[in-house]
Design goal:
This protein has 449 residues and is an alpha/beta fold. Helices cover 50% and strands 7% of the residues. A hairpin with a 4-residue loop joins strand 7 and strand 8. The protein is globular, with a radius of gyration of 22 Å. It starts with 10 loop residues before the first helix and ends with a helix.
Amino acid sequence: MTDDRLFPADPSTRDVARRLYEITKSAPILSPHGHVDARILASNEPFTDPAALLVTPDHYVTRLLHAHGVPLERLRSPAPAREIWREFASRWHLFAGTPVRYWLADELADVFGIDETPSADTSDSIYDSLAESLASPEFRPRALFDRFGIRVLATTDDPADDLAAHRALRDDTTFTGRVIPTLRADRYMDPSTPSWIQALDQLSAVAGFDCGSYHGLLDALRARRLFFLDAGATSTDSGVADAGSEPLEPGDAERIHAAGLAGTVTAADAIAYRRNMIYRFAEMSTEDGLVMQLHPGVIRNHHLPDVASFTRPLQPLLRDFGTHPNLHLVLFTVDETAFSREIGPLAGFYPSVYAGAPWWFLDSPGGIARYRAAITDSAGFAKTSGFIDDTRAFCSIPARHDVSRRADAAFLAGLVTSHQLDEDEAATIAAELVDDIPKNTFKLDPLVE
């Protein structure tokens, strides 16, 4: 892994990128959106095996293996861990040129000191070396958390979660980092889904409000937002089919809610209900200050993005709350054409809107460069989110953040050598991209003082 990886080929621009990267390479990691299970750090038990740590939880890895004909059941328990690892290692060449290859190579080399290239021939020896490392205290979750330099790690959690692991970590004086929950209420937004009624029952049981009515559901969600705030949360997260945000009259919402309970809700009413809930979440954010993350357009269980639209769908929400001082709305997309077409211009006008980082197969060196070029013209740097690693693969966190820091150094270096910025200002921006900007966007200041 060369020290100049991801830097421009032009020598003068590369020299500037090197200097800018030096400013950020050892900066603490702020990870305000991710999917690592807090219980891993609360229990601090050794990781079970290399496959469960590096392959199974990483949908970037399993997706590409599946694309080459490996059935998903061969990459999951109860398949033997060593066999899962062999499936992966024997297909290492398939990851060439992808950011996944970069992350994995970085993890193997920098985290575990592996100097062999994965292959069918080296699979077992690498597995054995990794397993030996994982058995040592230096590779337990908290030791790695400290080694990675993570200051804040956000998880993603259902409103009905008791957050016991988060509270245990917060109250443990031997744990110096912060692991904070993020409220993800997607399964309460669509009354046409088969699990909606069960979700309402679970929420009723923990919130103390009867979710058999629309009004009761809103009361329960407000209560759980406060519960999450008390546990350190600074944001919510919503992944929905589209960014529609048209509010319903309370009577209409109650009617649709009742139809959902009766199993008679129409598709059109279910969509209207979900769009109303997005509006209500923005309204709640103006009340309690939780940052609202929104990523529409991912077609779940099909693994394809949809064409994203934000301007018209968000017009009701932004009309009513776009200038509210409590609202921070971070917009993510898997349709990168939306960066310059919609997200950049919205972030460049509305005080509440921030351009979320490239995410879900766009968080690559090329994707990050295109994002910076598309967003900066309209919104600058300060109306962005900081890097979002969005990962379940714990050991990939430092590698993913390193990609972002190198890619941003390369982009800023291009602005310096083309005389759009002087190097001192570029250095300031580089530092802000990993510190002040994510702290401001996600309201992290109280957690990192």
